[in-house]
Specification:
Blueprint lengths: L1 E8 L2 H16 L7 E8 L5 E8 L2 H11 L3 E7 L34
Antiparallel strand pairs: 1-3, 1-4, 2-3
Length: 112
């Protein structure tokens, strides 16, 4: 399953240490086997971050992240993959509509 963690950052210094620690675990292949990080999406203002993970258990991911995370409050949810866009290994829920060709009239630019 895919899971999202929404982090509400309250202490940027503690959060930076958390991120460095988890990134180190990822690079050194020390994460528990059931977890695969897919995306880390920090906000421009540094107050929030979202992470997307592949996991076998939302509860196990929550237990792990709550133990490893300082400087933020976390919220967790399972992704409804059949309605999601962009999840690895998941086909798009709808095919793109064909693009309409631009129409040119009397030498003018394309209509929009």
């Amino acid at each position: 399953m895919h899971a999202v963690i929404r982090h509400y950052i309250s202490d940027p210094l503690k959060w930076d240490r958390t991120v460095k620690n988890i990134m180190s675990m990822i690079e050194q292949h020390r994460l528990p086997g059931a977890f695969k990080p897919l995306q880390y999406l920090p906000s421009a203002d540094g107050r929030n971050a979202d992470c997307v993970w592949e996991t076998e258990s939302l509860g196990a991911l929550q237990k792990f992240m709550d133990r490893e995370t300082t400087g933020a409050r976390n919220e967790y949810f399972e992704v409804k993959t059949e309605a999601a866009i962009g999840c690895p290994g998941v086909r798009s829920w709808r095919k793109r509509a064909p693009r309409k060709p631009n129409v040119t009239r009397r030498g003018q630019g394309a209509e929009r």
